[in-house]
Amino acid sequence: MKRIYALEEWCIDCKRCEVACKVFHSKSKDPVKAFLYEQPKPRNRVRVEGNRTLSIAINCRHCPTAKCVEGCISGAMTRNPETGVVTSNPEKCVGCRTCVSMCPFGAVTIEEGPTHPIAFKCDLCGDELGVPGSPSCVAACPNRALIYVESEGN
Amino acid sequence: MAITTDYLIIGNSAAGLSAAEAIRKTDCEGSVLIVSREPYSAYGRPLISYLLEGKTTLDEIWLKPEEYYEENRLQRMLGPDFEVVQLLPEEHRALLAGGEAVEYGRCLLAAGSVPFVPPIEGLAEASNVFPFLTLDHALAAQEAAREAAALAAVEGRPSRCVVIGAGLIGLKAAEALCGYVDEVVVLEMAPRILPAVLDQEGADVLRQQLAQRGITCLPGITAQKVVVEEGCATACLLTTDELLPCDFIVAAVGVRPNSALAVDAGAVQGRGLVCDSQLRTSLPDVWAAGDLVQVTDAIDGSKRPLALWPVAMAQGAVAGASMAGAAEAPSYESAFAVNAVDFFDISLLTAGCINPPEDGSFTAVTEVDGDSYVKFVFRDGLLVGYILLNRPACGGIYTAIIENAIPVDQLDPAIFSAAPENLDFPPALRWARLHKFYPADRDRRGWKEGC
Ligand SMILES: Cc1cc2nc3c(=O)[nH]c(=O)nc-3n(C[C@H](O)[C@H](O)[C@H](O)COP(=O)(O)OP(=O)(O)OC[C@H]3O[C@@H](n4cnc5c(N)ncnc54)[C@H](O)[C@@H]3O)c2cc1C
Ligand code: SF4
Ligand code: SF4
Asked: How close B268 comes to chain A (CA, Å)?
């Protein structure tokens, strides 16, 4: 499958990936409305760690044997066997944080959802769960510190 | 005529379904039959409290869409008639409560846990005492809570539910019922709540937070007797000799491995079923997975069941692969507990060793900061356990540090004072962690040769 890889050598901590992710996952797709007015707030699923001397954008690895899927108590977190994409179904998620306690990379967060807090994670910007799209973070990175390439594994 | 199947899976939950999925990865042809005494499609067992809270519904609680079973040709027989009442491993037969027999090639026991009923006088005979292990239990408790609230309103008094046992299940039941009755009182024989997953200090912090949200926990106190009038429990006589009136009771003092079928057939049992690294029991062609398996604790080497959902899923995958004779069958050697629970807006993650023995080989650091309480336990330069009360962010990074036994001196010491980061790992390890399956034709700058 195609995976996103972060290259810390090029990352300049500008957080444009976070902005692009948040806007893509908003209702309005408009940065001003998304940041200031939408409720519940749109969430970025990529997260930049570090500071200007060393930083890296952390994204879900779409693990072949995904700990978050193994742990999910509701069946919300699933891995599409054909595409390899791991997504969480907001309708089924109860916000228990089992996935948070299992993900080795800190790639899932629990944030306010339509009725109760639920899991948010990278969905590769697909239009439907489990189907990859074209990742907004990669397109937004000014420095090619995020690449979306065919990986050596499924 | 007996029913025949290549694979018989007893239990339609985490372990059973995970095994069925693993069998299908290797064997697309063999017939798979799943039997369960519960009359429902597989549901998230831990979700029963969330259902009462309205965080899931009877439309969403099911683990898999119905088409899944057909697509994967998993036959199911669900309901009381399909409870397995006897296992005859030599004959490769299982007898069902409805009178039929199943002839199988290989069998998986994934029958989970059964509630432990404490020997409290009166408890067993009252009709308004509920365990909290199944969807039916939860729906019955919900009904009792609604009736209690209505009756108490008429009588002009507060409605009250008593939960016996402040373990995970008891406290989740308390949280769920809190939205229905006026008062929920949780009794716990041990000196602290969540005795298995918290230490004293953390338990005290959590207990206060639960109290602010309407749940009264009484650690160190339990019921010595249940007062029963006309078949109904009306009060608990506490070990302090006080009488605590109640409308109904949830009994959640603990669970036991539901392994009687195998034990009666002669299987070796310790604190759970004893299995090899492929999760084969001592009986011929009988595997086991989930709550009823005895697991070796990766940290202290002790042997006991680890009654947790992710553990059941992982074991099901191993047992299923082995049953189907997968070429690269994984093995199951040991595990450690990772618990994630939330109560209202409170979050609690714990893992591994939390209350280390005071033999000098462990060190622990703790920190209280506002509503949060954090504890890390170390041994021989390794992280072996944690408590994260109200500081959940990126908790899985700590879990990975325990699981992969990453020496603490390789990590940025800051990793323990705030949410852990991937940058806290040394460069080489960080690259290896974050760049699995990295394309071979690119260098670390992301460039292809010559570009
Ligand atoms: C209220 C509650 C909350 C929980 N919360 C969490 C949590 O947050 N996180 C976590 O990790 N774990 C949690 N757990 C524990 C978790 O649910 C179990 O570890 C998990 O369900 C074990 O899965 P299993 O497949 O081994 O067995 P079970 O889920 O117990 O399923 C057993 C299956 O076997 C069937 N069965 C039993 N006997 C027979 C028989 N004789 N014949 C036919 N069928 C039979 C049953 O009908 C059922 O389908 C919770 C449990 C409860 C009750
Ligand atoms: S959320 Fe974490 S565990 Fe799940 S697939 Fe992504 S990186 Fe892997
Ligand atoms: S928070 Fe949601 S996605 Fe994560 S384990 Fe719980 S139910 Fe599954």
From this structure: 28
